[in-house]
Amino acid sequence: MDDEQNLTAWVVYESFFGNTESIAGAIASGLRLEHVAATALDVADAGVGETDGCDLLVVGGPTHAFALSRPSTRDDAMARGGDDRYAGGGLREWLSALPVQDGTRLAAVFDTRVRMVRHLPASAARSAAHLMRQHRFTLIARPTGFLVHDVEGPLDQREMERAVAWGRSLAREAQERIAAGREPA
Ligand SMILES: Cc1cc2nc3c(=O)[nH]c(=O)nc-3n(C[C@H](O)[C@H](O)[C@H](O)COP(=O)(O)O)c2cc1C
């Protein structure tokens, strides 16, 4: 039980209009409800190595042109009044710079998007999942999307509740996997 309460998690996000930031905060709240020490962190403030050593790394960003943002889509977002703190690089660049893991580090990915695309896999979360797998993280949940009404939002209130519930489910999954990994063979 003590071990479960000692798990740590970062929820690293990119957000131009505040919607993904809100979802990241709700996911961190859900994790904390299950006794994981979780902190939401803007990727623009995430130093190199800052998340090393945590038990669970959750990352999420807005879907831009069916993927994680790129310099050209960030320019579009800023032209619409979005935050300019990612002008020098966003979640894609931060993930790309992460060290390759040994396969035991746990992770989960999410995004925000205007439409729920159930069968078309093109989204920021899928693009983040690809990068995480390339860096040999183990994903403990399917890439998950949260719905905004338009480019600038707002979020549906139900999505905040869903994000808290998703955070709780991530905590339970991480706790089970880490406990199983500690059991003697
Ligand atoms: C340049 C640009 C491209 C976008 N492309 C997509 C897209 O391909 N699919 C989609 O569902 N939403 C798209 N959107 C809407 C974003 O997903 C939405 O702005 C985002 O979820 C808001 O989150 P934020 O407030 O955290 O930035 C796009 C938005 C911008 C600014």
Q: What do these coordinates show?
A:
With 185 residues, the protein is α/β, with parallel strands linked by helices. The two termini are 20 Å apart. The longest helix has 26 residues, at 157-182. The protein has six helices and six strands. The chain has helices spanning 2-5, 19-33, 71-79, 91-96, 124-134, 157-182; strands spanning 8-13, 37-42, 56-62, 106-113, 138-139, 144-147. Flavin mononucleotide binds at residues 15-20, 62-66, 73, 76-77, 80, 112-115, 148, 151, 153.
Short characterization:
By secondary structure, the chain is of the alpha/beta class.
* Count of β-strands: 6
Order of helices and strands: HEHEEHHEHEEH
Shape: globular
* Proportion of strand residues: 15-25%
CATH topology: Rossmann fold
Keywords:
Rossmann fold; binds flavin mononucleotide
Q: What order do the helices and strands come in, and which of them pair?
A:
Layout (H helix, E strand, L loop, with lengths): L1 H4 L2 E6 L5 H15 L3 E6 L13 E7 L8 H9 L11 H6 L9 E8 L10 H11 L3 E2 L4 E4 L9 H26 L3
Parallel strand pairs: 1-2, 1-3, 3-4, 4-5, 4-6
Helix pairs in contact: 2-6
Bound molecules: flavin mononucleotide (FMN).
